[in-house]
Amino acid sequence: MSKDKIIEYKNLINQKMKRMVPVQTEWVKVESVDWEEKTMVAIGEDNELPYEDILLGLGSVYKKPKPGSLALIGLVANSAGCYLIDCEAYDEIEVNTKLTKVQVKEKGVKLTRGTEDFREILEDFMTEVNKINTEAQAIATKAGATESVPKLVASFAKTELIIQRLNAVLTSE
Predict the structure, then answer these.
(1) What is the 3-state secondary structure (H, E, C) of the chain?
(2) Could you name the domain of life of the organism this protein comes from (predicted)?
(3) pTM across the whole model
(4) Widest CA span of the chain, in angstroms?
């Protein structure tokens, strides 16, 4: 048997042995988060060992834990690779599909599809509704239908409140 074949055989045996080790979990305290790289550093609660480059997701869902919070991580097949399973507190959660992205933060929710931002679409819509309402008020006043004007003004005020409510839920960041 050649030396290359022996090395290949040894590697295959090692891989098989690693696969026999079940997924392990570890409770950790989040030390720091690199949101650009989608990784974090944490310290084991029981063993006080550092865990670095812990993946915050695999491409479709990323969770940004709050530093100092308790988290559960998984270790696969006895390797150094770790991934975040869950955490007691998050700063942000991001969900991605092929065209759609949803970001949930303390400030609110941002929903985009391709280049379209849901908040911007709603703002554009409400602006046009307000223009229609303003024009309707002018027409009602010119036509002498003054009893309709207070209703239109009240409707206009309600649309402004709706915009404020939307801004409280949706974020532009």
Answers:
(1) CCHHHHHHHHHHHHHHHHHHCCCEEEEEEEEEEECCCCEEEEEECCCCCEEEEEECECCCEEEEECCCCEEEEEECCCCCCEEEEEECCEEEEEEECCCEEEEEECCEEEEEECCEEHHHHHHHHHHHHHHHHHHHHHHHHHCCCCCHHHHHHHHHHHHHHHHHHHHHHECCC
(2) Bacteria
(3) 0.70
(4) 103
Q: Which residue is associated with the tokens 């950790």?
A: 28
Six token digits for residue 24:
């392990």
Do 72 and 86 contact (CB within 8 A), yes or no?
A: yes
